[in-house]
Amino acid sequence: MTAFALHTDTHHPPHRTPLRSSDQRERFYELLPELVASDPRVVALLADIGAGYVDLPPGIADRVVNVGIREQLLVSTAGGLALTGMRPLVHTFAPFLVERPYEQLKLDLGHQDVGAVLVSAGGSYDMPTAGETHFGSRDVALLDTLDGWTVHVPGHADEAETLIRHALPGDDRVYVRLAGTLNAAPLGSGPGMSVLRRGSRGTVVAVGPTADRTLTAVDGLDVTVLYAPTVRPFDAATLRETLTEPDVVLVEPYLAGTSTRYVAEALSGIRHRVLGLGVGRAELRRYGTVAEHDAAHGLDVAGVRRSVEQFLLG
């Protein structure tokens, strides 16, 4: 394990925002020194990503540790620190935080029954020019195979800040999934769902950064839209309480169908239909742009509109 050292992060263009960035990842880097300084239990663990973008005031440098490009070590270190009573705040890109160290998440955190706050960036294909190595659409589905995880998918930087601040004082396992494409304004920071609009022909659940496009896509359609910045635990109560027709469309910014099981459990005993929109399982083998990937997966406005109309109104 190496001491923290400032250096150039080639995965992110040099940029400094004085205060309160609207970009979720930049907001996290702005907050990180304050979060560490505010609680002697908190130790931030990095794996090179972001190491050149955190300004450290005197007195906390020994609690911001860069382990280098060693993601398994990153999570194992978090597990060890948690056993001593520390509260690890762990950060890197989504595929490096969940997919690569999956065994360490299972054993060093889960099996030892200790907690940490994991904050990812990059999302599903937020950096398409980096290619498949940096694509992370399977993260939430993978965490669903493990026990005891809270999963936040904020759609705005203000929501992300609130959720991270609330997560730090605990001892549980929390995953905060930061994204590059965001909603124009905060819509709620949970833990439950918010009702964005009501209708009678079915329910559309928009997760995190998909809310704005979903609202645009269903404009003029007689459907309820719920907003979920937190997906685990899944807010079954709000879904049931606002249900009209027992037909539900999920719009998720990661692997399609990830939360369909939770809808089925929420509506157990009710004959229902559910459609899960999200990133397809088939690998596209294309770079392109974020907008082009959205369109290819049916997650752009036109794609969401088409799917909702066919499923709920067809």
TrEMBL record:
Pfam families in alphabetical order: Transket_pyr
Spans annotated as Disordered: 1-22
CDD domains: TPP_PYR_DXS_TK_like
Residue intervals of the Transketolase-like pyrimidine-binding domain: 22-184
Superkingdom of the organism of origin: Bacteria
InterPro entries reported in the protein's UniProt record: PDH/Transketolase, THDP-binding, Transketo_C/PFOR_II, Transketolase-like_Pyr-bd
Annotated protein name in UniProt: Transketolase
Taxonomic source organism: Pseudonocardia nematodicida
Phylogenetic lineage: Bacteria, Bacillati, Actinomycetota, Actinomycetes, Pseudonocardiales
